[in-house]
Amino acid sequence: MEVPKFIMRFKGKGFSTTRIKLYPFEYLPRRSFSDFKKSFSGDDEVLPVLIVGAGPVGLVLSILLTKLGVRCAVLEKSKIFSQHPQAHFINNRSMEVFRKLNGLAKEIQKLQPPVDLWRKFMYCTSLSGYILGSVDHMQPQDFEQVVSPVSVAHFSQYKLTRLLLKQLENLEFRISNGDGIEELNHRLLGEREILMGHECVSIKATDPCLTVGASFIKEGKKTERKILCKILVGADGAGSTVRKLMGIGMQGERGLQNLVSVHFLSQDLGQYLLHQRPGMLFFIFNTDAIGVLVAHDLSQGEFVLQMPFYPPQQNLKDFSSKVCEELIFKIVGWELKDINVIDIKPWVMHAEVAEKFVACDNRVILAGDAAHRFPPAGGFGMNTGIQDAHNLAWKIASVLQDISPPSILQTYEMERRQIAIFNTRLSVQNFKAAMEVPSALGLDPAAANSVHRIINSGIGSILPSGLQRAILDGIFAAGRAQVSESILNDKNPLGSLRLAKLRRIFDEGKSLQLQFPAEDLGFRYLEGALVPENYNASHAPEAPTGRRRDYVPSAEPGLRLPHMNFRLLPKLSSEEIFSTLDLVSGDKVVFLLIIAPKNESYNLAQAALKVADGFRVSLKICVMWPSGSVKEIGANKTALMSIKDCIHVEEIRRSAPSPSWWDICQMTDRGAILVRPDEHIAWRTKSEVSDPISEMQNVFSLVLLGKRTCLLQEVEAKLKHV
Questions:
Q1: Which regions of 440-552 does DSSP assign to beta strands (E)?
Q2: Which residues in 599-630 are b (16+ Cβ under 10 Å) and which e?
Q3: What is the C-alpha separation between 566 and 678, in angstroms, rounded?
Q4: What 3-state class would DSSP assign to 50?
Q5: Is residue 30, in this structure, part of any structural domain at all?
Q6: Which of 60, 486, 612, 707 matches a 20 to 30 Å C-alpha distance to 302?
Q7: Do residues 430 and 116 lie in contact, with contact meaning Cβ atoms separated by under 8 Å?
Q8: How far apart are the first and last CA of the chain?
Q9: Contact present, 682 and 531 (Cβ < 8 Å)
Q10: What averages of pLDDT result for each successive group of 10 residues across the chain (722 residues)?
């Protein structure tokens, strides 16, 4: 979706021509920003933001920053962009972010495979053999767009990267390997540039800026250049150099599983599955091989096979293209004539979160896999990283545009780290759910890993390597025998028992899940750049279960703004329909205040505009009129209609008994909602505010400066002595 025209009308528009002096602004810290201006503004010879890593997270961040008017550039150590499919599931919240990137979500939906080709996970003895069960991960509400204006997508990472690069090209970014560019030594790296083949090798902090050493090959020789920047963002993946250079450790579980990923093409297999067994993931268990096949695109015949890998008894040399072809044939059930193995990569599954996301006096920041590494179960890795970038972009812009002090970047860590920890636990729970299926079949992954550990660290470690390999192979062959046709059938008592257990796992939703609406759309920041409410035990986030839970909209601070369709007023002939998420523009650091058409709300809106002006931050007012208010508006010209920088909209209910906007928000129309530039709620009130000026001063102080006004602090101090 393109940026709506009514949003464009507010872009770059002045919100007040007169600066006002309202007590207690005289003491606000923004009057003494000189302590950080030296580091975060001024020198045009210093790049404002340098991003290390040109994966989806780094590219999305560069787009968001550029749209917000922040100059940035990207370093990428690889000389070319990877064609390995990697991540492929884009969840609801990420697709909402992509809606704001010049219609990117719409383009993804157009290019992705039809939903019916990937909505299921299949469990079978081979791709042409006995089907043990299947799980459909799409429910009717997933298509109705009641809780979100856009749906999830199945789209390979390298294809997403292409679309992101196309967006950057439209923003006048250029890709370069550095050849022919004059040596940069303590000089500005060109903004809107992606330097390929450049690895970050050093970070040195000085008073005015950071000096980043970038290593690259020029004319066959290793060369290093120095780049000056104000803020450095490490979005350079799980093995992040930036994280290591800053000495930031990881906390969590390492080495959950070793796997080999085989990227291959086969139109023959694609066409077979397209017409016979369409699905996204295929879990195959037979006496010759065990693996998970990811169908990235059935029509193109593009697949990735994931197989367990047990080093050091096994090594990558054991997985040659020929060996991988044979394993694929065993997984498929017949020999493919057109198989083409593209790439073979080993990888290790971790569940870890960085000890901190922000370092070096708020000047070095981690995002994406550099800050957290999850099991792929549920697809939270790339999606959490994209949402990191969405949270971070407006905060960086507010610092560089002199709206907030650098300390607001600490709220990025406060907000995103707790989400990363939760998503790590959820991914581990979902991974354990995935292990329920092989366990039910008599293939206990935990037992296999225990045997492997014993061979590596126990008495088995003194045995010759060849014997160790033979023992391991023998044990695994005995395990795979549990899924032989002679055992795994309804006539065999043991097999019948196992198949019944398997069916219960599928029926009760205890297997690997794809969608988590409650965590996808309903993740909540409990502290940070927001005004928290008093919480009790019922407000605490539920522990992850690994099972799908429905999302329940709410306007509590820290949550994403609920979605509801509306139309603009007073244009009676307007048929255009928008989402409440469209009220927030991505082209400027703008806050949004949503109110009802009431006089007390009018007073609050006027106060909020004055206070926002004093904080030098843009604020837009939205008056949400109930459904069927068109005639009332025409007959009742209230003072609300004259509020500057205000738009009037009418809610669209799906049907007569459907809830109103304020019902969806779990509020009444006597309240108001303040929304941040990343569409998360910064503050709300459920009732009329007695002193709007004082209240809004405190709100913007907390959100933008991370502290309460002196007036409120003085009141609280006095109350303590009463």
A1: none
A2: ebbbbbbbbbbbbbbbbbbbbbbbbbbeeebe
A3: 20
A4: strand
A5: no
A6: 60
A7: no
A8: 56
A9: yes
A10: 56 36 32 42 76 98 97 95 90 96 96 96 95 93 91 96 97 79 48 93 92 90 92 96 97 90 96 96 94 96 93 84 95 95 93 97 97 91 97 98 96 97 93 91 78 69 73 80 89 93 93 93 95 67 80 96 92 78 93 94 94 95 87 56 80 86 96 98 95 96 76 43 40
User: Where in the sequence is the domain holding 580, given as residue range(s)?
Assistant: 553-721
Question: Is residue 577 assigned to a domain?
Answer: yes
- Cα–Cα distance measured from residue 404 to residue 589, given in angstroms and rounded to the nearest whole number: 11
**Bond before 517 cis per omega within 30 degrees:** no
Q: Specify if 33 maps to a domain.
A: no
Q: How many domains does the chain have?
A: 2
Residue 324 falls inside a structural domain: no
Partners of 675 in the β-ladder: 592, 681
The secondary element (H helix, E strand) that includes residue 352 is strand 340-354
Q: Which helix (H) or strand (E) covers residue 322, if one does?
A: helix 321-332
CA angle 180-208-412, nearest 5°? Answer: 95
- Tell me which residue of 217, 218, 214 sits closest to 241, measured CA to CA: 214
The tokens for 425 are 């636990």
Distances, alpha carbon 82 to alpha carbons 52, 79, 230, 548, 592, in Å: 16, 9, 29, 32, 39
Least Cα distance to 521 among 556, 561, 577, 557 occurs for: 561
DSSP labels, 78-118: SSS--------EE-HHHHHHHHTTTTHHHHHHHHSPPGGGT
Which residue intervals of 441-464 are DSSP H helices? Answer: 445-457
Check if the beta carbon of residue 704 is closer than 8 Å to that of residue 615.
yes
Q: Write out the two tokens for 619.
A: 């604020």
Query: For residue 372, what are the β-bridge partners?
Result: 353
- How many helices and strands (H and E) does the chain possess? 21, 26
SS3 percent helix, strand, coil of the chain, rounded to 5, is 40, 20, 40
Alpha helices, DSSP H, located in 283-320: none
Residues ≥6 apart with Cβ < 8 Å to 303:
263, 264, 265, 266, 269, 270, 293, 294, 295, 296
Domain with 615 in it: what CATH number?
Answer: 3.40.30.120
Round to whole Å and give the CA distance between 316 and 309: 9
Kindly give the pairing relationship between strand 193-196 and strand 199-205: unpaired
Q: Is the pTM of this model over 0.85?
A: yes
Strand 672-675 versus strand 131-136 pairing type: unpaired
Non-local CB neighbours of 614 within 8 Å, separated by 6+ positions: 19, 20, 21, 22, 25
Residue that the structure tokens 């994280």 belong to: 243
Q: Whole-angstrom Cα distance, residue 360 to residue 355? A: 14
**DSSP H or E run through 227:** strand 221-234
Domain boundary among 381, 396, 427: 427
Q: What is the reported pLDDT for 257?
A: 87
Q: Among the three residues 427, 457, 472, which one is the final residue of a domain in this structure?
A: 427
